[in-house]
Predict the structure.
Amino acid sequence: MIDPTLPLAQLAAQTAARFQQRFGRVPRWIAAGPGRVNIIGEHTDYNDGFVLPMAIDRYTLIAADFAYAGTKVQWHCAQRDVTAVFDLATTVQKGEPKWSNYVRGVFAGFQRRGQTPKGLDVVMDCTVPLGGGLSSSASLEVAAATLVELATGKMIDPVAKALICQKAEHEFAGVPCGIMDQFISVMGQQDQLLLLDCRTRQTQLVALTDPEIEVLIANTNVKHELGSSQYAVRRKQCEDAAKILGVMALRDVSMARLEAACSRLDPVVFRRAKHVVGEIERTVRAATEVRASNWPLVGELMYASHHSLRDDYEVSCRELDVMVEIAQSIGPAGGVIGSRMTGGGFGGCTVSLVRKSKVNEVARKLAADYEARTKIKPSLFVSRPAQGAVVLKG
Ligand code: GLA
């Protein structure tokens, strides 16, 4: 396992060395796709709402070169020591191993655009925790898409690139996700959050440059199986609500209008919609308050988001709630500005904004109290907002 805390250039050098070991030459290209953490705006992307994520300095890295001959891709995963092989002479299909479907889906997306490279030799490493809700899959898709751009000598529009990656997830991995993860992994910028309007796909940068503020990510190290099936159920409930309300998406409904329509909605569907409508408002507000460095209010919005996800959207779980409760009990006096679950839910990570001078203390307390209450060892790390889709050699 490579050390995830190493600077990107060093990680890239390690992946390049692995490529050389395996294929006996230096790689022609090195690229990386980052994972992400969402500060606020959960389960709003597929409702045409707003999200406020940032790319994190955890990556899927790939080193690659053209194969000596032919049209085959040999994609070696260093972590698992497994190689996926597929042929670009025909339309790329789903296959084994399972993780290779994220890559296959991206190649298929480029094939549809008539952008197919020659055969490739590839080595991949990953420092994004797998299954931790930090979008390791989007980081892989975006790294793969960046490689296809390099190998065909044609960069594409970043929105089109993110959409190819999203489609790979839909069609090859069977996850009906929104656009947040792939967009931020492509478009992330150093020291910036990205306020993304998931309807118009317009983005605004929101600087997170206050040297006093750290983003602390706490992985509960649980992943409840429920997650993937419940995601589709939530999506459907939102679509049902929008249909009954006669709008294209829940983005188009104000809280007043939703409340007025309460009796027309099934109580569960009403609560789902209430989360989404409230969360969209909170996200736009949070972007404004981050810009104003109004940290107490940003914190309140984060807790309100968590409680809404827990009580109305019902995608949290005990471990996430415990982690957020501990953070909230440390409070502003102990350096915690705000905290919430991040990503799809049912396990994975929480994100907290923490005063830099207190961050080590906070991390220690979160880890110790969480373990005492759940008997599970969490993993914690801080990340600055990182750049999306990086070409390290190309
Ligand atoms: C997953 C999906 C995203 C988004 C989040 C919830 O990460 O991939 O599109 O819906 O869940 O905000």
Q: What stands out?
A: DSSP finds eleven helices and twelve strands in the chain. The two ends are 25 Å apart (CA to CA).
